[in-house]
Inverse folding.
C-alpha cells in the first residue's frame, strides 16, 4: 500500500521538494514499523520509470494511495495537472462527483509557500496544522527546509505529518478506478466557466514552442542517428532511450504546471509565431537541436530569422550527455549554433539562453525557470488587453466649439 501521494507544482524548488519527500518516506517507515526499503510514497519524477506513460502512472498511484498530500503554493493552484490530481482523489474519496459539503477524506494540505488566495474547492479543507513554529505559518515548509536554524522545527514537522499519514492510512478511502483519461479530467482549481467579458484580461498565458529539429529522413541524410527522430520534427526525442517520449511532451507538462496553454510548431512557422506573440503578449520559446544547422534548408531558415528584428523570448539548445554522437561533435555543433544564431545569442541573457542542456531533468528545471522569468517580464513590460463588456454603446461624446 502507498501511504501517501505527494502532489506539487514542479519548478525551481524541486530539489527541496525531493528532500522533503525522501525525509518523509523515512519518517513514515519508522512510524509504520516498516523496512527501510519499503515503498510508502509517490513522487512523480521519483517513481515513474523511463518511457512509462506518466499520466497513467499518476492515475495508478492516486487510485491506491491512502492519503493525498497537497503542497500548497501559488504555483500549485495555477497548475492544471495538480488540479486534475486533486479531482481524481476527491472523486475517489467521496465516491461521487464533487458538489457536496463534506471535506475530502485523506487529503492533507501542507503549506509549502502560502498562497495569496485559495480556490473554492480548497476553502473547505482545514489546513491550519497544529504547528507552533511561526516561520511555518508565515512562510511555509519551504522556509523550514531552507534555513539551517529551523532544522529542529523541520524534524518536528516531519514527525507530526508522518504520524498523521500513518493514522489516516489505517482507514484508507476505497480504491479508485485506473480507467480514467487524465487529459479529459477537469482541474478542480479551474472549473469550466465562460469568462466574464467585462473583466480585463491578461493574455500572456499562451506559450508557443517552436521546435527546430530535423525529421528522421533528414537526419539520416547527414548520417545522424535516426533513433532520436520521427516522421515529423515535433517527434524529436533528444534524451532517447532514457526518456523515449518526444521533447514536446515534457515541455507541455512543465508549461501546464505553471499555468500556460502550450502550442507547438516547427521551424517553418517561427517568424509567424513571433509576430503573433508580439501582438498578443505571448511567449515564444525556441527548442533547438544543433544538428539542424547541418541541414541547408534548416540553416537557411535559422539565418533568415536571426537577421530579423523579431526575437524569441528564450532559447534552449539540447545537447544530450547520453547522445554519444552529439558529444563527439559538440564543439563543431556549438560553432554552428553561434554562426547561425549569433544575433539571438547576443541579445538573450544567461537566464533566457541555455546553450547546452544535457539531461531530461535539467531540461525541465531550466524550462521552468525560463517560463517563470518570461512571465515576470511580460507582467513588467507587456501590454494588458481589456475587452469592453457586451451590449450597445452610445456614440462617443464630441465637444463642439461655441
Amino acid at each position: 500500500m502507498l501511504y501517501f501521494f505527494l502532489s506539487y507544482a514542479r519548478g525551481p524548488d524541486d530539489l527541496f521538494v525531493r528532500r522533503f519527500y525522501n525525509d518523509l518516506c523515512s519518517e513514515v517507515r519508522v512510524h509504520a514499523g516498516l523496512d527501510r526499503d519499503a515503498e510508502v510514497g509517490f513522487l512523480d519524477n521519483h517513481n515513474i520509470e523511463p518511457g512509462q506513460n506518466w499520466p497513467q502512472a499518476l492515475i495508478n498511484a492516486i487510485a491506491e494511495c491512502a492519503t493525498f498530500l497537497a503542497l500548497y503554493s501559488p504555483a500549485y493552484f495555477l497548475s492544471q495537472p495538480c488540479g486534475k490530481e486533486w479531482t481524481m482523489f476527491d472523486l475517489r474519496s467521496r465516491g461521487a462527483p464533487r458538489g457536496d459539503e463534506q471535506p475530502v477524506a485523506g487529503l492533507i494540505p501542507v503549506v509549502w509557500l502560502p498562497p495569496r488566495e485559495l480556490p473554492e474547492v480548497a476553502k473547505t479543507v482545514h489546513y491550519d496544522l497544529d504547528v507552533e513554529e511561526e516561520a511555518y505559518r508565515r512562510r511555509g515548509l519551504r522556509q523550514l527546509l531552507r534555513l539551517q536554524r529551523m532544522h529542529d522545527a523541520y524534524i518536528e514537522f516531519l514527525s507530526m505529518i508522518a504520524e498523521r499519514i500513518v493514522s489516516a492510512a489505517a482507514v484508507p478511502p476505497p480504491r479508485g478506478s485506473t480507467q480514467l483519461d487524465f487529459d479529459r479530467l477537469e482541474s478542480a482549481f479551474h472549473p469550466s466557466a465562460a469568462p466574464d467579458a467585462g473583466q480585463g484580461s491578461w493574455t500572456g498565458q499562451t506559450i508557443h514552442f517552436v521546435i527546430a529539429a530535423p525529421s528522421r529522413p533528414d537526419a539520416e541524410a547527414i548520417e545522424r542517428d535516426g533513433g532520436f527522430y520521427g516522421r515529423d520534427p515535433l517527434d524529436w526525442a533528444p534524451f532517447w532511450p532514457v526518456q523515449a517520449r518526444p521533447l514536446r511532451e515534457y515541455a507541455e507538462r512543465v508549461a501546464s504546471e505553471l499555468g500556460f496553454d502550450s502550442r507547438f510548431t516547427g521551424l517553418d512557422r517561427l517568424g509567424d509565431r513571433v509576430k503573433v506573440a508580439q501582438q498578443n503578449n505571448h511567449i515564444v520559446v525556441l527548442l533547438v537541436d544543433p544538428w539542424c544547422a547541418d541541414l541547408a534548408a534548416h540553416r537557411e531558415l535559422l539565418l533568415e530569422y536571426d537577421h530579423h528584428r523579431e526575437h524569441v523570448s528564450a532559447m534552449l539548445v539540447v545537447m544530450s550527455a547520453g547522445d554519444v554522437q552529439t558529444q563527439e561533435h559538440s564543439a563543431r555543433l556549438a560553432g554552428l549554433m553561434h554562426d547561425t544564431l549569433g544575433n539571438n545569442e547576443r541579445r538573450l541573457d544567461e537566464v533566457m539562453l541555455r546553450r547546452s542542456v544535457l539531461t531530461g531533468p535539467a531540461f525541465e528545471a531550466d524550462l521552468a525557470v525560463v517560463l517563470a522569468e518570461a512571465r515576470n517580464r511580460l507582467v513588467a513590460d507587456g501590454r494588458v488587453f481589456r475587452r469592453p463588456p457586451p451590449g450597445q454603446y452610445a456614440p462617443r461624446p464630441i465637444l463642439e466649439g461655441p
Summary: Residues 360-381 form the longest helix (22 residues). The two ends are 85 Å apart (CA to CA).
